[in-house]
Amino acid sequence: MSLPAADVRQHTPRDLQAYGRRYGLDYRIPGLSPRADAPVVRGLVREFSPRPGMQLVASDVEVLHRYDSRSRASSPLSIIVLLEGRAEVALGDARPLTLSPGMALSVRLEADQGLAASQPAGQRLRALTLSLDEACLTRLGTVAPEPGTSRMHAWPLPEPLRQGLEQALVTPLPDEAQGLLLEGLSLQLLAHGGRVDEPASGPAPRLVLQERRRLERVRDALRHEPAREHRLETLAELAAMSPASLRRKFCAAYGRSVFDYLRDCRLTLAHDYLTQGFSVQQVAHFSGYRHASNFATAFRRHFGYAPSSLPPAS
CA-CA 20 to 30 A from 145: which of 21, 38, 194, 308? Predict the structure, then answer.
């Protein structure tokens, strides 16, 4: 599936509008006219059909300008996988969820309840979207979610499956072998993320106002002092909850775990330090990382590029 550099192309607002008409998406590029010729992303977008009624779209692009999208077509089941970069997604008026590398999102969409997504600029974005129609789901013996409302469920991609997808994207194979590989990986994605109505983690806990306020104390502590060495037990005391309750309720309130949120805060802080001209070693220390190598790996996975490649702000 590796392609020559000549196949890498720039995609303008007009290109995105054409994709939108094809896939049922409305694109918005803040600050750019829909008729502008300036590139929004640069890279590869490839389409595959592992079997009838099943479509797999693989994107490997550099985001040059922030863009937003919202779905306007119904879909019985789609599974979105993020391998590199980050994106903000939201369903209706719900709180936005940050997708980070290694996360997957299973969604059922109704035409009047679209999925909104935002991709920030300055990152490499590698993602896969598997879409299945009703007939394909029936043939596979998978019960599609009941119609009536849009639903989504975020889940961690199992490491063996992630490695398989990564390998498939860089290994050149004959067409027949490639098709079999993609079909197998698509079926694995469906096996892990085929249910939207009944997430494996169980129903999200209901949070009363007092619990939300105590969770806000924890979130504020992480956001304002990300470089500190935070312990789950200490944060649980701050929230007046057990560690297990804090883990479960924090994720229900904010869409990610306590320490995923802490990592995001640290990396945002690190990004600011890098633009001020500090070295990678200094930034790792200032941001709460003991080893610069661990920091560099986390930074690249989060933003899609190495910290050493970020120039200071002029």
Answer: 21
Provide the pLDDT for residue 2. 36
Contact 239, 82 (CB under 8 A): no
CATH class of 209-309: mainly alpha
Is 136 within 8 Å of 109 (Cβ atoms)?
no
**Spatial CB neighbours of 154, under 8 Å, sequence gap ≥ 6:** 97, 99, 103, 104, 105, 255
pLDDT of residue 261: 85
Beta strand segments in the chain, E = 9-11, 25-28, 41-51, 54-63, 67-71, 75-84, 87-91, 97-99, 103-109, 115-119, 123-132, 151-156
Strands laid side by side in the 67-71 sheet: 25-28, 67-71, 115-119, 87-91, 97-99
The whole-number pLDDT of residue 288 equals 94
Question: How many residues make up the chain in this entry?
Answer: 314
The 3-state DSSP class for residue 93 equals coil
Query: Domain spans of the chain?
Result: 5-193, 209-309
Domain 5-193 CATH assignment equals 3.30.590.20: no
Contact 250, 217 (CB under 8 A): no
Mean per-residue pLDDT pooled into runs of 10, the chain (314 residues): 53 88 88 84 89 90 92 88 89 78 87 85 91 86 62 82 82 77 88 65 60 89 92 94 89 78 88 90 94 90 79 64
- Rounded Cα distance, 184 and 41, in Å: 30
- Chain-centroid distance of CA 207 in Å reads 25
Q: How many C-beta neighbours within 10 Å does residue 314 have?
A: 4
Question: Could you tell me the two tokens for 1?
Answer: 């599936």
Q: What is the DSSP string of 50-78?
A: EETTEEEEEEEEEE-S-EEEEE-S-EEEE
d(CA 192, CA 189): 5
Handedness of CA 165, 171, 176, 177 (dihedral sign): negative
